[in-house]
Amino acid sequence: MQYKIRTKITVIIIIIFMIILIISSYFLLQSYTEYKKSKDSNVELINKVIIERNNEESIDWNKLEEINKDIVGWIKIEDTKIDYPILKDSNKLKYLKHSFDGSYNNNGSVFTLNENPFQDCTTVVYGHNMKNGLMFSELKKYMNEKFLNQHSSFKIYTKNQNYQATIFSCYSTEINEEDKNIKSLKFKEEIEYYKSKSNYSINNIGKIEKIVKLSTCSYLNNHTNPTNQRYYVVAKLEELE
């Protein structure tokens, strides 16, 4: 009798283990499929809309608008995978879980919630910190001073104007604390706040009239799941000729 009971328990344990294994395998496969789709579709998009002439790049905005009218910009940071369209998200954080073409994807997109992106004094651009290296995962490299010194600026392109973004603040902090600290600040006070928060003292930035703030999840000093920490990279935005 006891032998039969032990046998049944063993069978049940094996069945539970197999179920867990099947479910885990399914989610791993789904994760890889979404990663590959996101990566491949972005490479295809770059090949389709980026035009190179005389060693200079330009963007075919007509093709981008045909793909998705929510695409309002493009961000590129040299020596990283950050080379993505920027989506204007007016639909309850749709692009947290949707690709630039509107299809569902856990990798999401790089997006902004600003009503007038890059025209407002402060434009915030968001992207996931994916373990697979996509979206804004490489922003954490800016916590390394050597990387910052070698990549102190990046480009943002829009249909009507291109921008040089010169970084003057990099740090990681808790998101609710950040929102509370900047909630009532005027623009000049906001600039001074970002300078004071920066891990590094960055000088010779000059007068700042517009900024872009890049944001992604951080796992530094984190004690919550999901993480309540964020990496922030803040840059002066200047129009390019």
Number of helices: 5
Strand order of the largest sheet: 3-4-5-6-9-10-8-7
Q: What's the average pLDDT?
A: 87
> What is the correct CATH architecture?
Beta Barrel
How many extended strands?
10
Shape: globular
- What percent of residues adopt helix (DSSP H or I)? 25-40%
- The number of distinct structural domains comes to 1
Stretches where pLDDT is under 50 for at least 5 consecutive residues are none
What is the CATH C-level name? Mainly Beta
What fraction of residues sit in β-strands?
Answer: 25-35%
Q: Would you tell me which CATH topology applies?
A: Sortase, Chain: A
Oligomer: single chain
What does the main sheet amount to? 8 strands, mixed, barrel
| SSE order | HEEHEEEEHEEHHEE
What is the H level of CATH, i.e. the homologous superfamily?
A: Sortase
Rg calc: 22 Å
